[in-house]
Design brief:
The complex is a heterodimer of chains A (228) and B (300).
Chain A (H helix, E strand, L loop, with lengths): L1 E9 L5 E10 L4 E5 L6 H8 L7 E6 L2 E2 L8 H7 E4 L11 H10 L5 H14 L15 H13 L5 E5 L7 H16 L3 E5 L3 H6 L3 E6 L2 E6 L9
Parallel strand pairs in A: 3-8, 3-9, 6-7, 7-8
Antiparallel strand pairs in A: 1-2, 1-4, 4-5, 9-10
Helix pairs in contact in A: 3-4, 3-5, 4-5
Chain B lengths: L4 H17 L2 H37 L2 E5 L6 H16 L3 E7 L1 H12 L15 E6 L5 H9 L4 E5 L2 H42 L2 H9 L4 H38 L13 H31 L3
Antiparallel strand pairs in B: 1-3, 1-4, 2-3
The chains are: A alpha/beta (228), B alpha+beta (300).
Bound molecules: adenosine-5'-triphosphate and magnesium ion (MG).
Main location (chain A): membrane
Pfam families (chain A): ABC_tran
Protein name (chain A): Cell division ATP-binding protein FtsE
Chain lengths: 228, 300
């Protein structure tokens, strides 16, 4: 489902955030990406939905090599992926409902379906009562949950989440993990960068550790492996 | 891929929503459109009226042909008839009006007073033909042609005056066109710049939309529609102000100008034309400005 071959990413300022990453993530897998701050986790994730292009090497998502993907085809790639951004990336001028609905509007889904699906996922992340609020009226954790709701609302084949529990209290974090486990059980591939030691060590899945732009560990059912 | 009708509907709804949610930015853009269109409108109306005055003056230029003084006789009458025929045959001539020396004297008496009535005994004036050229610019040429004909004493047309007048009119017309074009460019620049600034403030939004899977046109269309609304809303005040103002000025001034050479243009169709022009400019610039500004941020 997700393959990388010798991927190098050098930012214009000279920082090498990926230094030859090779990986193969199969359909239906649940993968944690761990590592210290600045290790290159977000970069690894951004390469998957082509927010960043690799300096060299290949990224292949669902059989599509992103290096040969034309600019105007990128939206269709992104619709197959649900992304939870580390900084949420909510549209400031749209309310909670509209933010989540946007992911369905771009695929020209019919309005009744949009209403139902959006309300369902907002219920799932516990924000049904705040649909008319705007992002700047929400706490960090609530914004994060809107971002999560948007990433799963169009039932993508892959959900890529960058620290989706970073701003959540433990209870809410576990609720979100339940949602991820549930959609993973339905066959959705999940890639999740996280600093949450407790979650990684409790819900045992494949753990990929990145340090200095390199994969230093890749263990099925592994541990978090760092001090919190 | 063809867009679904409901998606177009969605874009319309979105553009209106965005208009109201953008508060002061919407206000700034509309103000820019309003101010510039007001200027363009006022200038256009002034120019069109000046143009009309120029046309009127031009069309009023005529040649006064003095016919040789001859004994009153059948022969003289025939000669005059012959002359009229010859002048009418000139291809550049529009019309020829005959005025006898008695009529000429009456005109003089009317202008200068009864003192001149003593000339009624022995009228020293010539019979006269007033000739108008089809194209006023050909007046000089026509006058020269007429002077060569038999029985013409002189063809007067205010030689230098007419030439100067034509030069002046041509220059003032060109200046007017340059002014309006300059104003239009300023308008386009000002408005699209304001729109660019407001869209720049939203470049993060555009980036997010693209990250969530929106195609370029899906992002662009609501912005472009928003630009269209800005143009429409921005042209409302100029259209109203110009219509009311011009109608009132027309009502005020026109009665005192009845029968005069100088006339204001009638409110219809002038106001329809100018208002349609303003609306078209507003909408065009709004759409174009948004289109160009969004384009820059779509390369994500
Ligand atoms: N857009 C960018 N331009 C330049 N350098 C960048 C950019 N994004 C990231 N970097 C650099 O690349 C390195 C890896 O950053 P990245 O965001 O991938 O780390 P991370 O593992 O996600 O860290 P964190 O756990 O704090 O989120 C860092 O040194 C960072 O400074
Ligand atoms: Mg990160």
């Amino acid at each position: 489902m997700i393959q990388m071959k010798n991927v190098v990413k050098k930012y214009p300022n000279g920082v090498v955030a990926a230094n030859g990453i090779t990986i193969d993530i199969k359909q239906g897998e649940f993968v944690y990406v761990v590592g210290p701050s600045g290790a290159g986790k977000s970069t690894f994730i951004k390469l998957m939905y082509r927010e960043e292009k690799p300096t060299s090497g290949d990224v292949i998502i669902a059989g599509t090599n992103l290096s040969t993907l034309k600019n105007r085809q990128v939206p269709y790639l992104r619709r197959q992926l649900g992304v939870v951004f580390q900084d949420f990336k909510l549209l400031p001028r749209m309310n909670v409902f509209e933010n989540v609905a946007y992911a369905l509007e771009v695929i020209e889904e019919n309005p009744q379906v949009i209403r139902k699906r959006v309300m369902d996922v907002l219920d799932l992340v516990g924000l049904k009562h705040k649909v008319r609020m705007f992002p700047n009226e929400l706490s960090g954790g609530e914004q994060q949950r809107v971002s999560i709701a948007r990433s799963i609302v169009n039932m993508p084949k892959v959900v890529i989440a960058d620290e989706p529990t970073g701003n959540l209290d433990p209870d809410t974090s576990w609720e979100i993990m339940n949602i991820f486990e549930e959609i993973n059980a339905r066959g959705t591939t999940i890639v999740m960068a996280t600093h949450n030691r407790e979650i990684v060590n409790t819900i045992r899945r494949r753990v990929i550790a990145i340090e200095g732009g390199l994969i230093v560990r890749d263990v099925n059912g592994g541990e978090y492996g760092y001090e919190s | 891929m063809a867009m679904k009708a409901r998606t177009l509907q969605r874009h319309f709804r979105e553009s209106l929503k965005s208009l109201t949610r953008n508060g002061w930015m919407t206000f700034a853009s509309i103000s820019a459109v309003t101010v510039t269109l007001l200027l363009v409108g006022v200038f256009t109306i002034i120019m069109m009226n000046l143009n009309k005055v120029a046309d009127d003056i031009e069309n009023d230029v005529e040649i006064k042909v003095l016919i040789d003084i001859m004994e009153d006789s059948e022969q003289a009458k025939a000669a005059e008839k012959q002359l009229i025929k010859q002048i009418k045959a000139l291809p550049a001539v529009e019309e020829v009006v005959y005025s006898s020396k008695e009529q000429e004297l009456d005109l003089l008496i009317k202008d200068y007073g009864e003192d001149l009535s003593l000339f009624e005994q022995s009228n020293p004036l010539n019979n006269v033909l007033y000739v108008k050229a089809k194209d006023p610019q050909q007046t000089v040429k026509v006058a020269k042609q007429i002077e060569k004909l038999e029985h013409t004493q002189e063809a007067v047309y205010g030689k230098e005056k007419v030439e100067k007048l034509f030069n002046f009119l041509n220059i003032s017309r060109n200046v007017g066109i340059v002014l309006i074009l300059g104003l239009l460019f300023t308008a386009i620049f000002l408005i699209s710049n304001t729109i660019r600034i407001t869209i720049f403030a939203r470049k993060d939004e555009i980036e997010i939309m693209k990250l969530v899977g929106a195609t370029n046109s899906f992002v662009r269309i609501p912005f472009v529609l928003e630009g269209m609304w800005l143009g429409i809303l921005g042209s409302i005040i100029p259209i109203t102000v110009i219509s009311v103002l011009y109608s009132n000025i027309y009502k005020l001034i026109q009665p005192s100008m009845n029968g005069e050479l100088l006339q204001l243009l009638d409110t219809t169709p002038l106001l329809y034309q100018v208002n349609a022009l303003l609306l078209a400019i507003g909408v065009f610039i709004g759409i174009w400005g948004s289109f160009m500004s969004v384009r820059k941020f779509l390369k994500v």
